[in-house]
């Protein structure tokens, strides 16, 4: 909820902000898959780094006929996701929750049509990101789509924040980012530098993906989509 509120501060309500942020993200996924998948349907979805299932449930709503799996390294997040689903089931269809490392899931190769990684990579060192991309390629069927949404290096808002964050002395931080907030960001977001410096599109191509496309889906976030070749 805080992500959507910060991304769309002028929205009249939280629901409107969610409709914009999540709606644009889902639209890009659907459009990319329709354009490059050879008209194959989305039957199996994997949401890597699903946390408490927020993005997973949006994917399940968008593709109601698909089998949806949420995967996370935290058993505590997954317990919350399961609890939320038990209290608010979707479409009479159960989401499959898997406790595993997204870099090495242990799931069968070529078993998904869509792999989503939402708001995860800025929390990861570059090495982990490369491993996640390679694992997604292994898991996707030919014509399958990877969809990554996260902070956009081309966002004017985040460019300023990153410059302030990257400063190494108090005088450079300036008044726009207080020393307290600067210290907090350095302690809670230790891999931001690696995330912003990594060429994600190049990493996807190197892993074997085709049709790599990046769209700024709201003022703060990009959605990067790509396809496994036939």
What this model shows, in words?
The model is unreliable at 168-175 (pLDDT under 50). This protein has one domain: Vaccinia Virus protein VP39 (Rossmann fold, 3-Layer(aba) Sandwich), CATH 3.40.50. It has helices at 2-7, 14-36, 54-62, 75-87, 126-139, 156-166, 170-173, 179-188, 192-197, 200-207; strands at 44-48, 67-72, 96-99, 112-118, 140-151, 210-216, 221-227. The chain is built from ten helices and seven strands. A seven-stranded mixed sheet has the order 3-2-1-4-5-7-6, with helices on both faces. The protein is globular. The protein has 230 residues and is of the alpha/beta class.
Strand order of the largest sheet: 3-2-1-4-5-7-6
* Biggest pleated sheet: 7 strands, mixed
What multimeric state do the chains show? single chain
Termini separation: 38 Å
Overall 3D geometry? globular
* CATH top level label: Alpha Beta
Helix-residue proportion? 40-55%
How much of the polypeptide forms β-strand, as a percent range? 15-25%
CATH architecture: 3-Layer(aba) Sandwich
CATH homologous superfamily classification? Vaccinia Virus protein VP39
| SSE ordering | HHEHEHEEHEHHHHHEE
Q: Report the CATH topology name.
A: Rossmann fold
DSSP strand tally: 7
Tally of individual helices = 10
Overall mean confidence score, pLDDT = 89
What is the radius of gyration computed over CA atoms, rounded to a whole number of angstroms? 18 Å
Unreliable runs:
168-175
Integer tally of domains: 1
Structural classification: alpha/beta
């Amino acid at each position: 909820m805080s992500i959507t509120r910060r991304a769309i501060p002028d929205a009249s309500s939280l629901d409107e902000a969610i409709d914009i942020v999540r709606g644009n993200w889902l639209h890009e996924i659907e459009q990319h898959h329709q354009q490059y998948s050879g008209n194959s349907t989305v039957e199996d979805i994997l949401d890597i780094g699903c946390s408490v299932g927020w993005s997973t449930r949006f994917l399940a709503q968008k593709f109601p006929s698909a089998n949806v799996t949420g995967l996370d390294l935290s058993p505590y997040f997954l317990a919350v996701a399961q609890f939320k689903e038990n209290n608010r089931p979707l479409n009479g269809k159960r989401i499959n929750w898997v406790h595993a490392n997204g870099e090495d899931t242990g799931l069968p190769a070529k078993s998904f049509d869509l792999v989503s990684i939402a708001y995860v990579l800025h929390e990861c060192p570059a090495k982990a990101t490369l491993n996640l991309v390679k694992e997604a390629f292994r898991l996707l069927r030919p014509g399958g789509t990877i969809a990554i949404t996260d902070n956009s290096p081309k966002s004017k808002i985040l460019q300023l924040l990153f410059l302030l964050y990257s400063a190494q002395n108090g005088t450079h931080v300036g008044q726009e980012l207080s020393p307290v907030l600067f210290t907090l960001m350095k302690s809670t977001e230790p891999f931001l530098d690696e995330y912003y410096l990594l060429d994600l599109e190049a990493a996807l191509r190197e892993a074997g993906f085709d049709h790599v496309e990046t769209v700024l889906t709201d003022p703060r976030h990009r959605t990067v989509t790509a396809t496994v070749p036939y």
